[in-house]
């Protein structure tokens, strides 16, 4: 299966990039063959919503999981709506992180692991999903008191 | 006449000047004080107006109709703010990133996007004495002050002397406030901070074609930098408020200058006269 | 490594003067001025610019007058009133690109807009990363992030103990950007009714983003009653007040001379600022 990993350089011996939205590269690694594709993160210099853009970029590659250091609320919302589990807290070389994943040493998170993105306004946010129910549809989250 | 009160630097005394001025002019004709510092509105603390109405400020935000959406992703491609994301079989909107530009609904090939209103703040209005008052309050966590400021400015009465209390700095909210004024008073202090930020603010006023004049607050202990700059640039210094611990203490208690010492009223009326003359000259030239 | 951000809500409470003194007291730190609209920190640190970088924010629309037939489709479409007389007002344009799409003659294009600059300077107390956003430019948040990112990189290279960040006033976009991911926030407030009002809003902002701040009351003796009110409120919401600095004319004198207060005088304010720094430096990251 393919997993998407935030990385500081476009190869398997690169360090995992702890930030997801503004990481330098997204490595899409085939866990069986260890073949990979390096995508320059389109969101690195996005004015805002970097996590959203990076998450979409990963989803488009067909990756079935994301491994990173920290995942903000926006990215998390897009990924989980697309059915992609997120594993955080990883560090070290991409190659070793993939091994840890294969050995079942990483656990998926149920909510964003970090506050508003390295970037813009964020925080608890309500994504207005498409009308009606359905997989990954409306996802409600209370917005704190103004 | 629309007079905005701004500064580059925060805490120089914009609100103190704006509110003292409004109170000083109320017997001369209709006066409005519109507090446009919607992130941290303070004028109401000094004026204590009676608030009689409160209106939410809404901005448009897209809603995607699943029944029509084909997840083509066109909306997401055109959004300059990454406020709409399409991945697999979902279309997600991130309202706090949305600028309400309408590009997504325009490009949607399936006509699947419509817009609904979203509350980002509130405008409250009322009066104190003869002064009409209004301010905006941006909801905590919202990043865009523009729509709330525009909502406050829409309450301007063309028959009145309108005083706009601007936010500190020179960013978008400040430009939004000052734009279209007949004159802008820049409140500063005689320190390197005051000078540095005054320079930026004066450049801004020039760029948007609003004539300006300076009020030096906490005058006394400091340096000559601000006076020299004003002389060099031909910016009139219209008032000097001395550094005085008692004024600072009165401000802490929430008192305007005229409440603290009524004879300030004359000084503010003179200031206003000076501004009116300059604004007239400015509009002719 | 601790990243400490200083905020205030209300402008003018003393963030920058406080931070400059922290810079003088802290050893091995990187300094960061996140107030990109009206940066002041460099004025107190004898700084010399070593690097300058251009910063591009959102794009801006430009109308090619030769192609334009003045049909007005763009004016009708623009929700920000940014097109007047078939010219785009760069101060109002929000870079959405809708005008480019609606124009039937392809007469509008989106161009990169130079929004500001950011700098790395050498100061007496460590490297300073700072920036200046051009008037009325958006994306102060993005520029703040660029400044913080470089500060973090430098701090890692130098193995610095602290990153000291001067935050902007208010509660909007640039403040949120200064706050996110920081280890600690210190809110500098003053005992005025306005200051209290604004303190509550910035505390609300910190809560909204899950940050637990510390509070310091500057010029506390201008109103001991209001200072008590602040302390009570902070107690009620579970926020610690770690400093009370007396009003001191020496502080203004230090600003005028372009130096941190603690370097110049052994005054009441200096003593309290030193104690405050001790409290912050030893405070465990919440």
What are the key terms here?
heterotrimer, A: 146 residues, alpha/beta, Nucleotidyltransferase, domain 5, five-stranded mixed beta sheet, 3 helices, C: 286 residues, Rossmann fold, Alpha-Beta Plaits, 2 domains, nine-stranded mixed beta sheet, two-stranded antiparallel sheet, 10 helices, 13 strands, elongated
Protein architecture, described:
The complex is a heterotrimer of chains A (146), B (285) and C (286). Chain A has helices spanning 50-60, 73-81, 94-102, and strands at residues 2-7, 25-30, 36-40, 65-67, 86-87. In chain A, helix 1 runs parallel beside helix 2 (73-81). Chain A has a domain at 2-102: Dinitrogenase iron-molybdenum cofactor biosynthesis domain (Nucleotidyltransferase, domain 5, 2-Layer Sandwich), CATH 3.30.420. Chain A has 146 residues and is an alpha/beta fold. In chain B, strand 4 (84-87) and strand 5 (90-93) form a beta hairpin. The longest helix of chain B is centred in the C-terminal third of the chain and has 21 residues, at 264-284. Helices cover 36% and strands 26% of the residues of chain C. Chain C has helices spanning 15-25, 73-77, 98-102, 140-158, 173-179, 193-208, 224-236, 249-257, 261-264, 268-282, and strands at residues 2-7, 29-33, 48-56, 60-63, 83-84, 87-88, 108-111, 114-123, 126-133, 162-166, 184-189, 213-218, 240-245. At the B-C interface, helix 4, helix 6, helix 7 and helix 9 of B face helix 3, helix 5, helix 6 and helix 8 of C.
* Unreliable parts of chain C: none
- Enumerate the strands of the largest sheet of chain C in spatial order, edge to edge or round the barrel: 3-8-9-2-10-1-11-12-13
Name the largest protein-protein interface in this structure.
B-C, 59 and 64 residues
Q: Using the coordinates above, name the CATH class of the largest domain in chain C.
A: Alpha Beta
What count of helical segments of chain C does DSSP give? 10
CATH architecture field of the domain at 2-102 in chain A? 2-Layer Sandwich
Helix content of chain C: 25-40%
* Topology-level CATH name of the domain at 2-102 in chain A: Nucleotidyltransferase, domain 5
Oligomer: heterotrimer
First-residue to last-residue Cα separation of chain C: 13 Å
Note the total helix count of chain A: 3
How large, in whole angstroms, is the Cα Rg of chain C?
A: 22 Å
- What is the number of strand segments of chain C? 13
> What is the radius of gyration of chain A computed over CA atoms, rounded to a whole number of angstroms?
15 Å
Please state how the strands of the largest beta sheet of chain A are arranged side by side. 3-2-1-4-5
CATH superfamily of the largest domain in chain C: P-loop containing nucleotide triphosphate hydrolases
**Main sheet: strands, sense, barrel of chain A:** 5 strands, mixed
Low-confidence stretches of chain A: 117-146
Helical proportion of chain A? 10-25%
Structural class of chain A, please?
Answer: alpha/beta
Categorize the overall geometry of chain A: globular
């Amino acid at each position: 299966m393919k997993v998407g990993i935030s990385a500081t350089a476009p190869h398997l011996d690169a360090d995992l990039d702890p930030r997801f939205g503004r990481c330098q590269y997204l490595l899409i690694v085939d866990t069986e063959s260890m073949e990979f594709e390096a995508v320059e993160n389109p969101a690195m210099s996005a004015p805002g919503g970097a996590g959203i853009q990076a998450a979409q970029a990963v989803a488009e590659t067909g990756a079935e999981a994301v491994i990173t250091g920290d995942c903000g609320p926006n990215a998390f919302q897009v990924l989980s709506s697309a059915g992609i589990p997120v594993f955080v807290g990883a560090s070290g070389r991409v190659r070793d992180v993939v091994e840890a994943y294969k050995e079942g040493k990483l656990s998926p998170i149920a909510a964003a692991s970090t506050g508003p993105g390295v970037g813009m306004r964020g925080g608890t946010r309500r994504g207005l999903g498409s009308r009606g129910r359905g997989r990954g549809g409306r996802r409600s989250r209370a917005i704190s008191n103004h | 006449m629309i007079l905005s009160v701004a500064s580059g630097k925060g805490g120089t005394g914009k609100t103190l000047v704006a509110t003292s001025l409004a109170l000083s002019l109320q017997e001369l004709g209709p006066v409005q004080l519109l507090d446009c510092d919607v992130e941290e509105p303070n004028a109401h603390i000094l004026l204590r107006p009676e608030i009689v109405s409160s209106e939410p400020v809404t901005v448009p935000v897209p809603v995607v109709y699943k029944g029509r959406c084909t997840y083509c992703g066109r909306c997401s491609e055109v959004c300059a703010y990454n406020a709409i994301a399409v991945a697999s079989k979902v279309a997600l909107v991130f309202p706090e990133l949305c600028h309400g530009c309408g590009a997504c609904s325009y490009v949607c090939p399936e006509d699947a996007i419509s817009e609904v209103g979203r509350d980002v703040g509130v405008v409250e209005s009322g009066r104190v004495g003869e002064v009409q008052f209004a301010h905006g309050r941006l909801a905590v966590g919202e990043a865009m002050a523009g729509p709330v400021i525009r909502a406050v400015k829409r309450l301007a009465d063309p028959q009145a002397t309108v005083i706009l209390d601007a936010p500190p700095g020179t960013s978008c909210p400040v430009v939004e406030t000052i734009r279209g004024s007949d004159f802008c008073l820049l409140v500063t202090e005689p320190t390197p901070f005051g000078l540095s930020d005054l320079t930026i603010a004066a450049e801004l006023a020039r760029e948007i074609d609003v004539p300006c004049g300076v009020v030096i607050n906490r005058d006394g202990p400091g340096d000559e930098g601000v006076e020299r700059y004003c002389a060099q640039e031909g910016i009139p210094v219209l008032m000097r408020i001395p550094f005085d611990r008692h004024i600072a203490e009165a401000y802490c208690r929430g008192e305007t200058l005229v409440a603290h010492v009524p004879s300030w009223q004359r000084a503010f009326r003179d200031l206003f006269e000076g501004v009116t003359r300059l604004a007239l000259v400015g509009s002719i030239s | 490594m601790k990243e400490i951000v200083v905020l205030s809500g209300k402008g003018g409470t003393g963030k920058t003067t406080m931070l400059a003194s922290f810079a003088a007291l802290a050893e091995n730190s990187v300094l960061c001025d996140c107030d990109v609209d009206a940066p002041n920190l460099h004025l107190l640190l004898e700084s010399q610019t070593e690097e300058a970088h251009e910063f591009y924010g959102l794009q801006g629309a430009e109308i090619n007058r030769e192609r334009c037939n003045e049909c007005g489709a763009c004016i009708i479409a623009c929700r920000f009133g940014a097109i007047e007389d078939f010219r785009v007002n760069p101060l109002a344009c929000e870079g959405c690109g809708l005008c480019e799409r609606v124009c039937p003659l392809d007469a509008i294009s989106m161009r990169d807009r130079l929004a500001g600059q950011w700098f790395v300077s050498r100061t007496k107390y460590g490297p300073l990363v700072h920036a200046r956003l051009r008037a009325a430019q958006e994306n102060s948040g993005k520029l703040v992030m660029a400044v913080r990112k470089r500060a973090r990189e430098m701090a890692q290279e130098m193995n610095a103990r602290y990153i000291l960040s001067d935050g902007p006033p208010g509660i909007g976009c640039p403040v949120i950007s200064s706050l996110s991911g920081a280890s600690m926030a210190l809110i500098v407030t003053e005992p005025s009714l306005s200051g209290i009002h604004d303190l509550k809003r910035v505390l609300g902002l910190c809560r909204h983003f899950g940050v637990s701040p510390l509070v310091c009351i500057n010029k506390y003796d201008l109103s001991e009653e209001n200072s008590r009110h602040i302390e009570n409120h902070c107690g009620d919401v579970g926020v610690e007040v770690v400093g009370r600095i007396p009003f001191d004319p020496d502080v203004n004198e230090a600003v005028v001379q372009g130096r941190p207060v603690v370097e110049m005088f052994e005054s009441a304010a200096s003593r309290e600022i030193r104690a405050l720094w001790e409290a912050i430096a030893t405070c465990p990251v919440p």
